[in-house]
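Sequence and structure are kept together here, with a separate record for every protein. A complete record is shown below as an example:
=====
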Amino acid sequence: MALFSSRSWGDWVAEYELAHRHPVNRFCHSFGIPLVATAVALAPVSLVVPALRVVALVLFVVGWVFQFTGHAFEGKPPEFFKDWRFLFVGLRWWVMKVLGRSSARAEPTAPTE
């Protein structure tokens, strides 16, 4: 079970992958997701080290530009527009990609929530 749901991580990632098929979108997300995640991780530190505020902000904005550019090529809005939990699924997708894994299923199972 994942993300306060009866769905598995495999189901979430499989649904995410179905909405991210265009190669340009996947490429953009491969860079955008880690930039946003790094910016979020730097945010608390930037409260203590003011010089990092600009760095965190630039990483955050550039990361989202990458992701929305990818969705322009895909022709679909981001999945998190319909469910906020996809913000975390995108990060999980990226980690799996870096580790050389893909989702366990080609198609997600029906949600049972």
